[in-house]
Amino acid sequence: MQECKIEDAEKLIDAYADEESTTWNYDRSLMLYTCSGITMKFKKAIRQAFDSNKYIPAMPIARKTLRGDSGFFSRAT
Known about the structure:
single chain; 77 residues; mainly alpha; 4 helices; 55% helix; globular
């Protein structure tokens, strides 16, 4: 089994604290949940992630790609 590298993930995410891409938002919230469970910090992070792209959580459930899926996700304008 691979060793959990939470400290490495925290350092990487902290190093790019200003990054607000959808990927980083969801990664940040997952890391917070993994480390501390459901906290106010996690709730803020998951809300920010959801606000950046609300379709991401549904994709594994739908088991299909979105129309015109290029493999990239971005904030709708």
